């Protein structure tokens, strides 16, 4: 009998070792290295299309290469199309990651039901009945969507040969296993091998494949980082499970930009595309409440008006609390220090809480000015006029700094009926703007005069 070949993999980062050790030298995690059996190496038998292994490719001059753009499948879901860079490229492999329960299966099932192509949805997690129940909630009836509950790749390929689908969805890659590797489903070597088989399948047949991938507790796609290198596109579905908004982002895209982003709302009947997110994110436009300010931010390439809420109260304990939801807490500390030093506000003995509504996390530095405005508004208990909004970064010396794509932000604010926007004096506006007053400010004191 042949000797069983085994190797050791870090279950966190996928690094391979020839023997066991306590700590992974690559990612520094403890107790993540496990033995996996690699045996079995009979000839792989799935055979779809011609065997390409013996083909020799020749170098070509770059201007002789056929440069026509890849053919894409247009999905019914416009947000998804946009994130993919204008549709699903034939023969591409897309990996969709996200926390459990965030709605990955719902998103893809919904897509499978609405598309005008023959789709095979392979689930290793749920039974056909469960999927049917979910499909009934989402509703659009489809006679082109096939559901298969299977976890062995060889069986999946066999079904594909009979069915000849035009799109393959795998829910999820961690449940698959192949005959050519002995270790259990979900282990590094299984995930790698199954993905490699699917890539080969996609490239040979030009059928696009979408994989669902689980993520680990620190937010990375579970299993190997290598998986992200292997696929063409990595999408992340994120959001706060207690809120209705979900954001679809591209982390890597070989066929488009990674700046685009899709916004959805989770409803009783599935996910709804949100094409005008700003209107939903601004909660109470007509009530004058202190501590609220609107920021004109950009998420990817999309302008997004968002409400920042601040609460400033006298600290009960010696050390004041600083807490931020949806905003970087270190940045909050910095803004408070600037307010203290440059504008003379005594916030050292105050608790400060910041919340970005809608459960969305904002990285755009243009939100700074709105955060400052919300803090001052709460501190003075003085509501800001509800038709004002802000878009500028704050520097350490209290200067108001310019931000990118200011025209787009101003136009979005104008579209939503704001009458005044505060921006940096150094920002150059190139378009003519009529319906909104643009207030140019240069230092933090200019904003404190509002209160
Ligand atoms: P699911 O797609 O199963 O998440 P994942 O595959 O990422 O683990 O979605 C799970 C949640 O979505 C579930 O908690 C209920 C909610 N949901 C709705 O609110 N409305 C719906 O129509 C559907 C199908 C799910
Ligand atoms: Mg699922």
Layout of helices and strands:
Blueprint: E1 6-10, E2 16-17, E3 33-37, E4 72-73, H1 78-84, E5 88-89, E6 93-98, H2 104-114, E7 119-123, H3 128-138, E8 145-149, H4 153-163, E9 167-171, H5 188-205, E10 209-214, H6 226-230, E11 233-238, E12 245-253, E13 261-267, E14 270-273, H7 277-281, E15 292-299, E16 302-314, E17 322-325, H8 329-343, E18 350-356, H9 368-380, E19 388-391, E20 393-394, E21 400-401, H10 406-415, E22 420-424, E23 437-441, H11 444-448
Parallel strand pairs: 6-10, 6-11, 7-8, 7-9, 9-10, 17-18, 19-22, 22-23
Antiparallel strand pairs: 1-2, 1-3, 4-5, 11-12, 12-13, 13-14, 15-16, 16-18, 20-21
The structure holds thymidine-5'-diphosphate (TYD) and magnesium ion (MG).
Residues 98, 100-106, 134, 137-138, 266, 268-270 line the site of thymidine-5'-diphosphate.
> Could you please say which CATH topology of the largest domain applies here?
Rossmann fold
Whole-number tally of structural domains: 3
> What is the CATH class of the largest domain?
Alpha Beta
Distance between the termini: 83 Å
Q: What small-molecule ligands were found?
A: thymidine-5'-diphosphate, magnesium ion
Give average pLDDT, whole number. Answer: 86
Annotation, overall tally of beta strands? 23
The proportion of residues forming helix, as a percent range, comes to 10-25%
CATH architecture of the largest domain: 3-Layer(aba) Sandwich
For CATH, the homologous superfamily of the largest domain is named as P-loop containing nucleotide triphosphate hydrolases
Q: What fraction of residues sit in β-strands?
A: 25-35%
Coarse shape = globular
Please give the order of strands in the largest beta sheet. Answer: 8-7-9-10-6-11-12-13-14
**Major β-sheet, in short?**
9 strands, mixed
Spans where pLDDT lies below 50 across 5 or more residues? none
